[in-house]
Amino acid sequence: MKRYLDDQIRQDLQKKMVLLTGPRQVGKTTLSQQLLTEFEGGQYLNYDVVAHRKVIQDQSWRQSAPLLVFDEIHKMPNWKSWLKGVYDGRAPGQSVFITGSARMETFQQTGESLAGRYFKWRLHPLSVREWCDAHQVSPHEALTHLMARGGFPEPALADNEADAQRWRKEYFIGLVREDVLEFSRLKEVNAMRLFAEMLRSRVGSPLSIASMARDLNVSPVTLNKYLEILQALFIVFVVRPWHRNIARATLQAPKIYFYDTGLVLGDEGLKFENLVACHLLKNVQWKQDTRGASVDLHYIRTKDEAEVDFCLSEGNTLTHLIECKLSDTKPHLALGRFAQQWTDALTVQLVRECKAEADTGRLQIRDAAKWLAALEV
User: Fold this and answer.
1) CA triplet 205, 209, 210: central angle to 5 degrees?
2) CA–CA distance, 94 with 105 (Å, rounded to integer)
3) Which of 141, 159, 287, 355 could form a disulfide with 293 if both were Cys (CB 3.0 to 4.6 A apart)?
4) Is the dihedral of CA 190, 193, 198, 199 positive or negative?
5) Closest Cα partner for 353 from 320, 372, 321, 329?
6) Are 301 and 206 in contact (CB under 8 A)?
7) Residues 117 and 133 in one domain
8) What gap in Å lies between CA 20 and CA 300, rounded to an integer?
9) What confidence tens digit (pLDDT) does each residue in 300-323 have?
10) Domain residues for 206?
11) Distance in angstroms (rounded) separating the CA atoms of residues 246 and 243
């Protein structure tokens, strides 16, 4: 299945090394295998595979390979300086593609810098647009399918719902049991698992770390570390409140969403909000990675508890105000209020079951499936 980054990565491999990160099983290996079919004689090496690891450590891969794919290389000690040496000493015309299921910046190490040698990309789960393009279905059919299955390729493409649920159970258990050990001690895994389970039912609400720390009998500092690990492994992502002063926004309570909408515990409204959050983050990071744009995803919540689910910013300016509703086409009061405050921002109320789109002043009530399908990726 062709993914939205295929063409961009193919072009960038002709210029620099390419680093691709994203959640485990989101399609990175499949994407790299598809690229290898276009580079006859290319070689794939995964640091997690013992036989591959020896080839990596000995640097005994085929020197004539037009494309070298290194997977999970960030797990190797001093990987940055090693990778710099490999890239600088590669054969003429040889391309280097790096993939990993954790954020490379999480593994910051002293020593050599890779600055100027690579392009960075982040692969996200399938979107409404991707599903429509791949399967020639309507946006409504695509949205319904992704709401039920989530956007990870294996459960989305599974023959039935039971197989998708079996995948999801093993996926979540494996992430916490195996990947978390890359970052923390064995005795912390149970606490991390409980924390991740608790987050599944807290999607879309401002997160009280202090309250959850008391429930888990750990310190807020420890719980913040756990949250950083879950973010680094692309299990959850954080949406912080909008504020022109970044420091003040950081101090306010974040909202948590899962990269896999299927992991959300709650009603259809919460799952829909999580799915929209995934689409917005995917498009924000697409603009960051393709154009270097200073765009970001936030939410708005005031002291009097007026709240809008999401807002998009570019620099110090709000460009979009977005509220999610399952079926209510009545204009959201807070959305209308903020539309008057930020007059340059596009104001949209996305409705999952929208019988008729409408404009009320500056507020646009839109069919969510069609709106999401019209996003860039």
Assistant:
1) 125
2) 25
3) 287
4) positive
5) 329
6) yes
7) no
8) 31
9) 998 888 899 999 999 989 999 999
10) 128-373
11) 6
